[in-house]
């Protein structure tokens, strides 16, 4: 059985022991082959006896796939590939970048030309949860998608959100979708208030060392971490200048802290980092009332029932009924 392994550099250490004689290995960049060799040596594996074929990213996408969905060049393709082009440039820097360019979908699509049995790891944000979900699910079920596993967040506050494992084989009956979702409300809090997700243009890591414990302006890095600056032009925050209801972009799917921390009032001069999302409201009083509403038992229990991922996305928020001020 010939298997093609398509893994970014960060996952070589966990995949190296799965390489068998005659397998093929995708190389993310010029450092990848040396990295594979180092991990073979570290695990006491004789690389020369494996007869591995290495291919570059360009060679991977140039591989000739099946013409008739009968004869495939590989028995299996498995992978945890780069999620977008920027990740190649930021390899080994510790930065986990946005999935917005969806390079992972290009890897999945190509792999389905190369083998009947495919297992690929990919972020779900932007395509497999929310409004685009049904379209992608139907498209890939026709290509043999039969199991989607929810592996949760790769680490705290990962920009990509949850990670899924996608299993394809046209000979298998559909098993389950662990990101299964229902329809949101036709008129929700998202329709009532303008919502910004991942508000600021700088993430907490990029701001490390540039802030202080006092200053003119608050910088809300996460729902539990606030620092200060005197710079009135620190970074772009399109929500700034308004009273806001601020909360973490990534929360929890279950548990006590469904939003990943407190929902709080952000005043017009506060900065919100890329880790934060918010609703725009008209006053400080309204902001505090909406915070209390979102943190109420009724709403947090609702969120625990409907969330299919940790992200506090517009899709998840669209299940929350509009806020009504009962004191008026």
Summarize this structure as a short list of keywords or feature phrases:
single chain; 328 residues; alpha/beta; Rossmann fold; eight-stranded mixed beta sheet; four-stranded antiparallel beta sheet; 26% helix
Q: Write the CATH fold name of the largest domain.
A: Rossmann fold
Query: What is the first-to-last residue Cα distance?
Result: 70 Å
Strand order of the largest sheet: 3-2-1-4-5-7-6-8
Number of domains: 2
Helix-strand makeup class? alpha/beta
The description of the largest β-sheet is: 8 strands, mixed
Q: What's the overall average pLDDT, rounded?
A: 88
CATH H-level name of the largest domain... which superfamily?
A: Vaccinia Virus protein VP39
H/E series, N to C?
Answer: EHEHHEHEHHEHEEEHEHEEEEEEHHH
Number of helices: 12
Assign the CATH architecture of the largest domain: 3-Layer(aba) Sandwich
Query: Tally of extended strands?
Result: 15
Contiguous runs where pLDDT drops below 50 for at least 5 residues: 86-100
CATH class of the largest domain: Alpha Beta
What Rg is obtained from the alpha carbons, in whole angstroms? Answer: 23 Å
Taken from the alpha-carbon principal axes, the silhouette is globular
Strand content: 15-25%
Would you kindly provide a written description of the structure presented here, covering whatever features stand out?
There is one protein chain. The chain is α/β, with parallel strands linked by helices. The protein folds into two domains: 175 residues, 3-Layer(aba) Sandwich (Rossmann fold), CATH 3.40.50; 129 residues, Adenine-n6-DNA-methyltransferase TaqI, Chain A, domain 2. The chain is 26% helix and 21% strand. The protein has twelve helices and 15 strands. The strands form three sheets. An eight-stranded mixed beta sheet has the order 3-2-1-4-5-7-6-8. The longest helix is centred in the first third of the chain and has 12 residues. It is globular and about 70 Å long.
